[in-house]
């Protein structure tokens, strides 16, 4: 039964986190449409991403952070405190996705550093702290 909880928590955490991430990215591109020439489906369009104003980086960061946090919190619903390592597996898998995105999308270095250092593993820790505070 424990394996079922672990697998369900892991799969649902990743799924919900990805849905939240994609939804926030979509909201961001709706509120702040990319200028002409920025298209993340082409190499030239990704290179144009680097020169955008700061407002275009807010929603990607929020998507990564809130997506990871929501995925970790979703997994915590199905897990007991002794399976805390699953939360960090989810956060780490989102982090790996972030590293892949950094490699693909030509964002400024400052954004890459902030995104990779604050949006993934700290959100797993925050989710875990919120659960521990609730059960303490």
How would you describe this protein?
- With 136 residues, this protein is mainly alpha-helical.
- The chain has one domain (2-129).
- 77% of the residues lie in helices and 0% in strands.
- The chain has 6 helices and no strands.
- Helix 1 runs antiparallel to helix 3 and helix 3 (55-78) packs parallel to helix 5.
- The longest helix has 30 residues, at 2-31.
- The radius of gyration is 16 Å and the shape is elongated.
Order of helices and strands: HHHHHH
Characterize the overall form.
elongated
Number of helical regions: 6
Please give the radius of gyration in angstroms: 16 Å
How many separate domains make up the residues?
Answer: 1
- Number of E strands: 0
> What percentage of amino acids are in beta strands?
under 5%
The amount of helix comes to over 70%
Distance between the termini: 25 Å
Low-confidence parts lasting 5 or more residues at pLDDT below 50?
none
